[in-house]
Amino acid sequence: MDGSVSATMRPCGDSALTVEFENEISLGTNMKVQALAGRLEKENKRGVGELIPAYRSLFIEYDPLALTYGEMKDWVGAHLEGLDATSKGPRAVTEIPVLYAGEDLEEISAIEGKPVDEIIRIHSGSDYFVYMLGFSPGHPYTARFENPFSFGRRATPRVEIPAGSVVVQLGMSNIIPFDQPCGWNIIGRTPVRVCDFSRERPFLLRSGQWVRYVPVDPEEFRRIRELDARGGYICKEYLLGP
Amino acid sequence: MGMEIVSPGLLTTIQDAGRKGYGRFGVSQSGPMDKRAFRLANMLVGNDRDATQLEMTLLGATVRFGADVMVALTGANMQPSLNGSPAPMYQAFAVRAGDVLAMGMAVTGCRAYLAVSGGLDAPLVLGSRSTTPKNRLGGLEGWPLRAGDAVGFCDGSAAGHGVCAATVTQGRRIAPEITPAGVKTLRVVMGPQDDAFTPQGIHDFLHTDFRISNESDRMGYRLQGARIAHKTDGNILSDGIAMGSVQVPGDGSPILMMADRQSIGGYAKIAVVASVDLPVAAQCRPGDAIRFRAIGVEEAQALYRAYEAEMQALERSLGEWDTGKHVQEHLLGAGSSTAHPQERLWEAWGETHLQEHSPGERDGGMDVWDKPVEATKRTYRIAVNGVEYNVEVVEYGFD
């Protein structure tokens, strides 16, 4: 890779800027976001505040007493030079157990014209990439490359769905950390908490990693939930070679 | 010991500087809405800049103190009273265990801050005590304060112990901020997605007035006024949101994003309010009219640097006021006849008054409530205008 990765920098007021890559949800683009975030973080530069990676952009807070917008642009620009955003390294994967018994599983099966077993096989059959966390603490936005399902959001959002719900539309799938309103279809429920502030590591997932949804039966679901409630369950995490 | 919330008012939350560094995990920063008033309150009582305070909204709280502390109120004037008598704003004053500080309706502004010397205590969650109710995070188990809640004080000396801290702030006073009447102008830096709007949309945004709607809280203010026209539908691929961002959903009605905003969002942001004008926005209440004026990012940053310089100068002058004014007035002022003040011992009586260490010469303005039962002495050397003074600070215990 040579030269600079093309990106647009825009001010977000006087104390932040955003670096935008291609306007698309794609692994390649998000890898650039992750790679830039990693590079900038390593510098630990005085005056630079928090970084928030999103689908196609990196939001960077800074202290205008320490750095001007111009200085920030120069600094970020220098780190876009020769940015290596190819996914050569291994994938970090976390397994998320799912009891596939969501409120909308039958409906999904009907819409897709496939038996429930097939829907479960499809959803758990391919890894999902964590593009970003947002909406609420620990809430991952995960997606895969193809759209295995044809349905989008529900016509009428639900006022509240319970924490632990695993929701889907098209190629995307989210895990709901806290009870919240939601317009997506619920395919199942995970017994693990993706966010728990009382844990030493409150957030189970981070952007730039992968998630594999693994079917469990009701008995296993109960077992894991009880363990997890006591802080005694550790999701399987591993690196998959390139 | 700390204080008891007798009545919480409309919305009273525990806030420090906010929860930094967890936006990437979807955690809202929170923190004070009016960072200027917050900083001034801490300054007045001699706290660190980020020490934890109460933020009150429109209708303030009533609190009963369980210990002696210095306090200061800034921001909206909620007609404070201490044990039924008017209490000052923008001034450090001492309260005693058992005192009741009551706030009423805000007559100006929207949000008031109550700082106590040493700061309020609450469990640290992800490095902050700030309350984010929508995530049940921070404060007291994530909730706004309720009647009967007990809020502790940080660094609280033992219950009933006297209050002389090393920082002597009694009577620190600064000019209240003037809340301008009429339409308030908020300067903005355009973008990051101003190119998502039509020229007419940009024109309407910058040249018409907006009203803060009733759907306004610490998360954001929905604004009523012109519908801002997008080129397309106003949806973007979600990205990070700075405090003061004006995002415009598909219906064209702007939302000004404030302290409890979510970390990322999917609506185009036409502009972001300059940091120096965020306190003005924070003191807006439903029904208030605002208008936006565009400035460059460089100008916004220059304004911010000037603001910081002003704050630091104020901080210095307050510190000098403590030492200089106290020492000068008490050492060199009327009735004090010594020719060599730097050799004299002085003590801090009761709260924080520095006083010549000789019986029967008390400052007429001071108030000693209880008989001291215990005293520890600490000696400080203070330089005022190049002259060094020995100051003996006496800490009293009260029963």
Describe the protein's architecture and organization.
The complex is a heterodimer of chains A (242) and B (399). By secondary structure, chain A is α+β, with helices and mostly antiparallel strands. Chain A folds into two domains: 8-80, Gyrase A, domain 2, CATH 3.30.1360; 91-240, Cyclophilin (Beta Barrel), CATH 2.40.100. In chain A, 24% of the residues lie in helices and 29% in strands. Chain A has five helices and 14 strands. Chain A has helices at residues 27-43, 69-80, 105-112, 116-123, 218-229, and strands spanning 8-11, 16-20, 48-53, 57-62, 91-98, 128-133, 140-143, 158-161, 165-169, 172-175, 180-182, 185-189, 210-215, 237-240. Chain A is elongated. The model of chain A has no long low-confidence stretch (mean pLDDT 93). Chain B is an alpha+beta fold and 399 residues long. In chain B, 49% of the residues are buried. The model of chain B is unreliable at 156-167, 328-374 and 394-399 (pLDDT under 50). Chains A and B meet through strand 2, strand 3 and strand 4 of A and strand 16, strand 19 and helix 4 of B.
Which descriptors would you attach to this protein?
heterodimer; A: 242 residues; alpha+beta; Gyrase A, domain 2; Cyclophilin; 5 helices; B: alpha+beta; 3 domains; 7-stranded antiparallel β-sheet; 24 strands
N-to-C SSE string of chain B, H for helix and E for strand: EEHEEEEEEEEEEEHEEEEEEHEHEEEE
Number of strands of chain B: 24
The pLDDT mean of chain A sits at 93
Helix content of chain A: 10-25%
Instruction: Tally the beta strands of chain A.
Output: 14
Structural class of chain A: alpha+beta
Question: Structural class, judged by helices and strands of chain B?
Answer: alpha+beta
Intertermini distance of chain B: 14 Å
Q: What's the level 1 CATH class of the largest domain in chain A?
A: Mainly Beta
Total helical elements of chain B: 4
Poorly predicted regions of chain B: 156-167, 328-374, 394-399
